[in-house]
C-alpha cells in the first residue's frame, strides 16, 4: 500500500507557497501526494514534479471536467471536441508531473444534470474517450482511475454496479475506478460488498470520512473497508481526501462551506497514523 493525501485540502492549485506543507508531509511519512490538476500548464506540473521528487514523494493526480462547454459526453460535436481536448490536456499535465495514477471524475461536469440517468449514447461516447485515454496512459506507464460520485454531484457514475460495468466496457488494463468511501457511503448499502464487486477494477482507494473531515472521526467503518480491499487483492494507492473551509473550484458542487478539520498538522498526522494502523491491522 502506498499512502497519500489529496492536496485539495490545501488548495485547488499547488504552487511555491505550498512547498512547506509538502515538506511536512514527507517528514510525517507519506509515500505520495495526489495533486489537483484543474488549471495551469504542463511546464508548471513538470516543475512541481521535480519538487516532489526531491522530497521523496511520489506523484498522483486528480482532475475534473471543468464545465458543460467542454463535456466529452455531449451530443454537440464542437462541445465534445473541447471535452476531448481537455482530456488530452489532463494527460499532458500528468506526463509532465510524472503521475503514477490519474484519478477524478473526468467523465462529466460536477453538478451538471440532464434530468435523467446517462443515456446509451453518452455511455458510448465516454467509453470511446476513456479507451483512447487508456491507450495513451499505457504507453506512458501510468493508470487511470475514474471516480464515481454520489447522485447529488453527478448523474453519470454513482454505484459500483455502474462503475464495474463501465470499466468492463472500456476493457483496458490501464483503466480502472477510483473507489471513494464518502460517495459509496451515500450510494452503497454495503461497502465491503461493493468493493468485492468492483474487484480488480479498483485502481485507487480514496479514504474520505462521511463528513469529508478527518478519517476515523466519523461513521465509516474503515477497518471493514480495508479488509475488503485486501481480500480483493488491492495493494495500491490509498489516498486521504479531506476538504477545507471551501475551495472556489469545487465549493458550489460539493457544498463544503465550513472547516472540516481543525488545522493541517492535525489532519496530516492523525490521518496518517490512523490509516497506517488500521490498514496494518485489517
TrEMBL record:
Gene3D superfamilies: Divalent-metal-dependent TIM barrel enzymes (3.20.20.150). Pfam families: AP_endonuc_2. Coiled coil: none annotated. It comes from the Bacteria. InterPro entries: IolE/XylAMocC-like, Xyl_isomerase-like_sf, Xyl_isomerase-like_TIM-brl. Residues 22-248 form the Xylose isomerase-like TIM barrel domain. Transmembrane segments: none annotated. This is Putative epimerase.
